[in-house]
Design a protein that fits this description.
Number of strands: 0
Number of domains: 2
Order of helices and strands: HHHH
Radius of gyration: 17 Å
Largest sheet: none
Structural class: mainly alpha
Shape: extended
Pfam families: RelB
InterPro entries: Arc_rbn_hlx_hlx, RelB/DinJ
Organism: Acinetobacter brisouii CIP 110357
Protein name: RelB/DinJ family addiction module antitoxin
Low-confidence stretches: none
Amino acid sequence: MRKTEVYQVRLDSQEKKQAFAVFKQLGITPAQAVRLFFKQVVLTRSIPFSIENQNIDLDQLLKLKKYQLSASPSVVESEEADHQDIFDELDAILNENSQS
């Protein structure tokens, strides 16, 4: 049997209730839904759905990140670290929008 780990996530309480209701209608548990999401991330090597928010321009964000990297050529970042920075920036943008 594979080793499993626990991972905690903070969620907006209203979004959590709504999502859990959908999972119940689908006949799956929230844990199964999260495992399905992670499995699809691994299989597709991407977020398995389009991210649509008019306040976020992903192309612009990627161009900004590439510009920042080219502006300091002596600093070499791994692809994984670069992706983490993008997710951190997206998270910050989404948190700003949800607090507005």
